[in-house]
Write a structure and sequence with these properties.
heterodimer, A: 309 residues, mainly alpha, two-stranded antiparallel sheet, 12 helices, 2 strands, 73% helix, globular, B: 340 residues, 14 helices
């Protein structure tokens, strides 16, 4: 019993970390599922989203004189909410631009898409470095969700709970969108058999464009939510894209709940190993992946997909 | 996308002679064109690395995105031998190659049954394990700082011994190693083994049906490629007089992919060589004008993937072919564009 009580906060910590990991993987999974494309720029768009949000919350350049002053005088809450809307929308536009370029690689080896997005990741990271510099930045969060509270003799960070809750809500909303709307049906059908979808008269080109935009917007959401915890550096994207693809491979390509479960598993693995060997905790996710994939080639719930050919 | 196979039976070919002529004479003119000796070492080391990498990507069609790990393992092994055991060039190089091959063999055992994107993702994950270990295992690797003060030992050939402290001496050692690598790889890709690799690239399943043990070929080629990366890593440790985790990062592993592809590794043996030279020249020439050269290099890479995935050598081959077919069309009159 003591043992469980001792581990309980770490389990809680792992669970909340797991939801965040699942949130990072969400957009990545959508794009991989529908377009059979590994978007290695996912992490960079995650970072870019957080940087853009930082600018929306507190624009540093003196713009529009009095209006800018008035805007900055507003409480942090509404500005934060505005950032949560504007930044993902802008990142979705960036994502759609990438998708338009990517059209040339469709029908070729999926490796080309991977390589292209790898180049895009590098370019975006450099852009961030040019615009915002290499120094660490911080994303402000409103007072209401900041700070700490005491529970059962232990101190918890409010933001951790808010972020895990937000992640869970977003996962649920995306699931609802996929299951309960005609657009979700189209996306799922597109993932299943894109030729058939086209034959049924659905504009596949436009569907792919929107899915890519939606997926990258989700990356930006994840970036805004996670940046206050991880901090903001230009190469934070690498720290985000690696768990994302790891979770997808672990959960199995094309499985929504597989990805969520894998995210939680990775979160728990990282948090629990941190109790015993804190230095090495991040290694546990790679080892978890290697062990699972050695025994289950397609991950936990994966189906056969074009990525194997 | 077929690789050129002419002059495969020769030990030394004309492009090799041209390459060596350029590289051997390099120390005499590199400073005259405004560059510096050390750049030559870097270029040659990365050429070895990229050539070994292209054995996987270009010849076997296996996208390894974590190849920096084996380069790094070679560098660390070389450094540890110099710092902890004995200052010896040959022992260090052998240790670097063997350590990288051992690491490569361990990873290859886990991933050789995979293909395509899954293969790429698994190599990233395994590469990250090595990178992470090199950062955290401070007692052995020195953590973020890495191993410092790695010696440049003396080459002892019995009758003469040369100190590698001088950049030019180290450069010629690297060129000699590149020579061995180029000639060795040229033989490998034109051997039965190399033909089997190209068969696997074209259609893995069919190669299996024909009777090749595909898993074993993939295992061996990965190990060999890791060994070559280890050789390059050992030379790099000497060049930098240190070994550090940065070379194992995803970013650095991606650079070798980019160099290989921009040069034209998909269509030519020489793609990685051209790509490496272009990368370092771009770094130094563009870098002189703008701090943001990596941005432009990345954009160029994106453009090449979209418009000319065969890279620089591919574009050159097209040009030669077009000119040749134009010549035939003019010469004979009634057989236009036969070779196009």
């Amino acid at each position: 019993m003591d043992f469980i009580l001792h581990l309980a906060p770490h389990l809680l910590n792992g669970l909340s970390l797991g939801f965040l990991f699942a949130l990072i993987a969400l957009g990545f999974m959508l794009i991989i599922g529908v377009m059979e494309l590994i978007n290695l720029a996912h992490g960079s768009l995650f970072a870019l989203g957080a940087y853009v949000a930082m600018v929306v919350i507190a624009p540093s350049a003196p713009w529009w004189g009095a209006l800018g002053k008035w805007y900055l005088a507003q409480p942090l809450g509404p500005r934060y909410v505005l950032a949560l809307v504007v930044a993902p929308a802008l990142i979705a536009v960036v994502g759609m631009l990438l998708e338009v370029c990517l059209r040339r690689t469709y029908g070729k080896d999926p490796l080309y898409g991977l390589l292209f997005t790898f180049g895009a990741a590098m370019v975006i990271e450099e852009l961030i470095r040019i615009v915002w510099g290499s120094a660490e930045k911080f994303l402000q969060v409103p007072q209401a969700i900041n700070g700490a509270f005491l529970f059962g003799g232990l101190i918890y960070s409010k933001y951790r709970f808010f972020s895990a809750g937000f992640a869970l809500a977003l996962i649920w909303l995306v699931w609802l969108f996929l299951e309960c709307t005609p657009y979700g049906a189209m996306i799922k059908a597109g993932a299943h058999d894109s030729e058939m979808v086209r034959a049924l008269g659905i504009n596949l080109t436009r569907l792919r464009l929107y899915v890519f935009g939606f997926g990258t917007a989700l990356a930006a959401f994840a970036g805004i939510i996670i940046a206050p915890i991880w901090g903001l550096r230009p190469h934070v994207g690498v720290d985000a894209v690696i768990p994302a693809f790891l979770i997808i491979v672990l959960g199995g390509v094309g499985s929504f709940w597989g990805a969520v479960l894998a995210g939680v598993l990775v979160g728990l693995a990282v948090a629990l190993t941190a109790v015993y060997v804190s230095e090495w905790s991040l290694l546990s996710m790679y080892l978890l992946l290697i062990v699972v994939v050695t025994f289950r080639a397609r991950g936990l719930f994966g189906k056969k997909s074009i990525l194997e050919v | 996308m077929a690789l050129k196979v002419d002059s495969g039976d020769r030990l030394v070919t004309r492009p090799m002679l041209i390459l060596f002529a350029v590289l051997v004479s390099l120390p005499f003119w590199i400073e005259a064109v405004g560059l510096y000796q050390y750049l030559g070492i870097e270029i040659v080391v990365w050429m070895i690395y990229a050539l070994g990498f292209n054995l996987l990507l270009g010849y076997t069609g296996l996208p390894s995105f974590g190849h920096g790990a084996y380069f790094g393992v070679g560098a660390y092994a070389f450094g540890l031998i110099q710092l902890r055991v004995v200052e010896s060039l040959w022992l260090g190089l052998i240790a670097g190659i063997l350590a990288a091959m051992a690491a490569g063999a361990a990873v290859a055992g886990l991933i050789s049954h995979r293909r395509g994107i899954y293969y790429a993702l698994m190599t990233i994950a395994c590469g990250q394990v090595f990178w992470f270990t090199s950062v955290k295992w401070r007692s052995v690797t020195g953590g973020e700082d890495g191993l410092l003060n790695v010696a440049r030992p003396t080459i002892d050939l019995g009758i003469l011994s040369v100190s590698l402290r001088d950049n030019t001496a180290l450069y010629y050692l690297a060129v000699a190693m590149l020579g061995v690598t180029v000639i060795g790889l040229w033989r490998v890709v034109h051997s039965r083994f190399g033909k089997a690799l190209q068969a696997i690239k074209q259609n893995e399943m069919r190669a299996g049906f024909v009777g090749y043990n595909v898993w074993l070929y993939k295992y061996l080629v990965f190990t060999l490629s890791a060994g070559i990366a280890g050789l390059a890593g050992s030379l790099f440790a000497m060049a930098q007089k240190s070994a550090y985790p940065d070379v194992m990062s995803l970013h650095s592993a991606g650079l070798v992919v980019m160099m290989t592809l921009i040069g034209g590794g998909f269509v030519s043996f020489w793609g990685p060589v051209v790509g490496t030279a272009v990368f370092f020249l771009a770094r130094d020439l563009l870098g002189a004008f703008t701090e943001t050269w990596l941005l432009w290099y990345g954009l160029m890479f994106m453009g090449i993937i979209l418009f000319k995935p065969e890279g620089i050598v591919g574009a050159w081959q097209d040009l030669v072919r077009r000119r040749r077919s134009a010549g035939t069309a003019e010469g004979t009159g009634f057989l236009p564009r036969l070779r196009g």
